[in-house]
Structures are given as structure tokens and as C-alpha cells.
């Protein structure tokens, strides 16, 4: 287990700087949902985020590091964004001054950007690019 854990940490440490910075922004943006569990957007965003975490962490250790396959569980963002969209845009949108509205916009923006990367990375993984990222020579 120590060897696998060391390899996972080396993989994460070896990621490109911009990817690490992006992940340090994406994580807290999604974790903010746990501060708003009393709202619909907060609750469903926390459920989706929890599902991503409970799938990605075991996958990372099973695969020995960060791989493009970790983008596959992020597809849970698609139904979440479909749920959030009418609550932030349109005639029945939440009050823009509300915390739930601001959370919804934050989750929507960050996860939309994430999905742009995730669709590409999922496609690349499905096409056979299965290397452990961050450990490339």
C-alpha cells in the first residue's frame, strides 16, 4: 500500500502547475455546497460532489495515480448543471442577491469549465490514453 500511496502522491505532485491551480480552485468551489445544505442547489451540489469524491479517490489508488479515467465520474455534473440552469437564468430564477443564487452561479461556472476538460479527457481515455499523469518522463 505504501508503494501505491507514494506513486499516487508523485502523480499528483507531477501534474502541470496550471492543473494543480485549477484543482485548488475547483475543489473549494464545489465544497462550498456543504455550507448550503439547507438550499436545493447546495444539497444537490453536495450530493454530486460527494459522488465524485467517493468514486475518484478509490479509482486513483486502484490505478496508481491520476489518469484520464478520473474525468468519467465528473459526468454527474451534467444533470446537476441542467438542474441549476433554470434557477440562475430565466423568468423563474432565484433572487440574484440570495446566497443560493450565488452558489448556483459558482457551481455552474466552475463545473461547466471542468466539463469542457472532462469531455476531452474522457474521450482520450476511451481512445486508449491510459497513462498515469504526472509520472511521464
SSE blueprint and pairings:
Elements: H1 2-13, H2 17-31, H3 40-63, H4 77-88, H5 99-126
Helix pairs in contact: 2-5, 3-4, 3-5, 4-5
What does this structure look like?
It is a single chain. This protein is mostly helical and 137 residues long. The protein has one domain (2-126). Helix content is 66%, strand content 0%. The chain has helices spanning 2-13, 17-31, 40-63, 77-88, 99-126. It starts with a helix and ends in an 11-residue tail after the last helix. The relative contact order is 0.18. The mean pLDDT is 96.
Any descriptors?
5 helices; 0% strand
Main sheet record:
none
Given the structure, what is the number of helices? 5
Helix-residue proportion: 55-70%
The backbone outline, from C-alpha atoms, is elongated
Mean pLDDT: 96
Strand proportion, as a percent range, falls in under 5%
Total domain units: 1
Low-confidence stretches: none
Number of strands: 0
Q: What value does the Rg take, in angstroms?
A: 16 Å
User: Whole-Å distance between the termini?
Assistant: 23 Å
Secondary-structure element series: HHHHH
Query: What structural class results from the helix and strand content?
Result: mainly alpha
Task: Characterize the quaternary organization of these chains.
Answer: single chain
